[in-house]
Structures are given as C-alpha cells and as structure tokens.
Amino acid sequence: SSADSLVSRFCPEKTDLKDYALPNASWCPDMLNLYQEFLEKTKTDGWVKLPSFKSNRDHIQGLKLPFGLAVASDKSDWRIFTRCIQEEGQGYEYVIFFHPSKKKSICLFQPGPYLEGPPGFAHGGSLAALMDETFSKTAYLAGEGLFTVSLNIRFKNLIPVGSVAILNVDVEKIEDQKLYMSCIAQSRDQQTVYAKSSGVFLQLQLEEESSQ
Amino acid sequence: MIRRSFLGAVRLGQHRVLPGVPQVLPRLSPTSAFGSSADSLVSRFCPEKTDLKDYALPNASWCPDMLNLYQEFLEKTKTDGWVKLPSFKSNRDHIQGLKLPFGLAVASDKSDWRIFTRCIQEEGQGYEYVIFFHPSKKKSICLFQPGPYLEGPPGFAHGGSLAALMDETFSKTAYLAGEGLFTVSLNIRFKNLIPVGSVAILNVDVEKIEDQKLYMSCIAQSRDQQTVYAKSSGKEVLSLNPLPPSPSRQTERRTLMMLAQAGTSFLEWDWHL
User: Fold this and answer.
1) Which listed residue, of A18, A130, B188, B258, carries a Cα 20 to 30 Å from B72's Cα?
2) Which residues of chain A are within 8 Å of residue B267 when distances are taken between CB atoms?
3) Where does this one sit in the cell (chain A) (predicted)?
4) Could you tell me the end-to-end alpha-carbon distance of chain A, in angstroms, rounded to an integer?
C-alpha cells in the first residue's frame, strides 16, 4: 500500500464517527493558535490532519491483525487508550498532523488534570503513552509499522497541566522491516524541552477481514 | 517558578556546589523533622487510618488470576516483609503535608485532580492494579489487569498504557526505596501484547543507587511466566537526599537563582542510559 492509499484509507472523507482531534471549549489559546497554524499548512504545504476516533478499531475498519491475533469480542465499549477519558479537557487533548512525503508528524498535546503525576504537572507515563501513540500512527502511515518494539525516553522538564507541548516526530530510517523514529517534545516557544525519545516499530501488514 | 532547568538545578546541587553557596538540596518536605529511613517513608505512605478510598483492593472486575495472585501476596505481607501499597485517586493524597521542591509547587483552584493511572473510575474499564513493596529487598511487584479503555491493537493493551504503569511502579518504588522523585529516563523493549482482561505481573528491582539516581529494572510477564510482555531498564529517578535544617528564605532564593543560571548549560545534556 502506497503512502497515499494508506493515508486516504485512514482519513475517510465521509464518516459518522466523531473526530476527537478537533478544538473544543477546553483548548487553551496556545493550543487553538497552533491548531490554526497547522490547519493552514494542510491547505498549502502537504500536511494532513489525522482524525482521531474513540476506538482504534474504527481506524482499521475492514482490516484485522495478522497472524490470528484478532480476537472476537462481545464487548462493545472499547476505547483507544489516549481517548479513554471522554470529558473535555480532563484527560488527553491532542491532535496529530502528518506529512506523507517528509514522513514527519507534529502532535499538539494539552494534558488535563486527570493525567497528573507530580501535583500540577503531567505524569511522565502520560507523555510516554502519547509518544507511543504518535509514533504508532506515524509508523503506520509512513510504512505500515504496526507494533512497538522499543521506546526510549529521556525526560528533561515537567509539563504543566493545561499548557501545550508540541511533539515533533521524524522517521529516521526504515530498515530490516523496522521503522526508526525520533521525537522531541517542547514548549511552543521551544525554550523548554520536555523530553526526547526514540521508538522502533515492526512493519506488518494488516489483513483484510474475510467476508465469512 | 523555575521551569527551565529544574533537572539541571538538582544535578548541580550535588557535591559540585558553586563557591560561596551553601549546599542546599531541598527535600520533598523542607520543614519536616522526621528522618527518611525506609521504614518511616513506608509508614508515612501507608497511613493506618484514612478516609481516603484505596483503589488497590479487589473488586468485581478482577479476574480469577488477579484475585489469586492478590491473595498470594497478601499472605506474604503477614510473613515475608512485603507491604501492600495503598493507591489513592490523586497523587496529592499520597504526599499530604509535603510539597514539591524548588518552588515547583503550583497553587490551583481546581479540585478534581487524578493520578494518571487512576484516571478511569469505572471498575474494570481502565487500570486495575496493586503494588506490593518489599522495603529491605527494594523490590516491587505490580499486578496489572488492563481494561477495554486501555486498548491499542484490538483486544490488547496499548503499549503506552504499560509504559505508564511501569513508570508509575518505578516512581513509587524509587520514592520508598530512596526518595526518588522524578523520572529521568525510561527504556522499554516490548515482546508480546497483553490481552485485555488478563493479568500481567510487573517485577521491579532497584539495581543500584548512585550519584543521586536510582537505577531500576522491570520484567512484565504472564502469571505462569511463559510469556514475557516487556522488559524495561535503566530508568533513573533523581533522588533528593535529606539535609540538615533548611536555609532561610533569602539564602534559598539566592541559591535557586544561581542554580538556575548555571543550570542553563544542562538543557542540552542527553541523559545516556
């Protein structure tokens, strides 16, 4: 699957599904401004705003995990981890912009009070999880990366709850069926680096769900 | 508030102190008089009486494996020196009477704060976990049952959800084993996916304590140990050791300013594992 077909399958033009990667009343001014800035780039510079549905299953409709990993389930309320908290502004507020030819992503992240670690600041693990998720979507669209092989994060500063962190993700190389990516999370003015990380993902194709 | 270089400031605060500056290494509680032995840290962390709800207790969503393992370790708390850690909805409840050093403490008018790993309140939907800690062995065991709100690949826990719980288990272990306070690095190698609703056991060890840092390792595996889910290592949490009586406000402010200025050189440091 070429990058373009992966992206177009991932970003359906018409859907009834709610897209959570859209501004809401909880977004602080920095978050709104940055969002507008990148929305402009989707019109002129080749960037794509990724939709974000409540469940990862909604992102891979018609496809399933390979190797018989797919499990049948009678449950109905599945949520992708980074959308586990539904109340606006309380958990993860984030949006990912992806550039297919540059193989880069930008994630705007505003952590809410349910993501706390040290009082007033986001839990290191909440940033780790969003870095993993941003790596995951980037790896998938850049080269059908599917599973995290490794994640290595160096933390530098705490992110205050309610402020914005920008995650810059690059695909460094694709080799031996693995995608190697790097990420820097920093403040809007780039004066504060929150963390740096690298992630390796395994390339695997999703299978088409059989009609049976 | 010094935001730019708190890590640099603490790092500089170790024995290579600027001339003329008193050696100030604020601890979590500058005015507290109690010692910081493992026992006192644990007993302060595990209040005998509290109105706070402890989320690290069995509930209807726990699968049989989770319940059995819990009973197994509960037995060990009676005979083998293990301690079951309470888990409150907010980290603030865990450090009542204490605050972050370096003026990092922020006043807030909000009231509903949650520690990330307790962000989902509905039983069985998010994180179900309990941590047992052994003070003298400096080990922890975390029993983890991920719910459907933690999904990544359909039917399996998101890698990031395990990363966050590893970070949290490291965090509590580092604090009780040596007053470790902030995560410096986290390095995880994933091996297998954890099915939603099953149990993973996280075994955490403190490998060494050196240069104001705690080095820990973790293996997450299935109950029968046949499946390794992930290994993580080299995670270092800065330790802020206790000091003699805290300095006057003025000295503290002057010290913090000098540390902040010098700390700019640490911004570009890469913390190598």
Assistant:
1) B188
2) 156, 193
3) Mitochondrion
4) 24
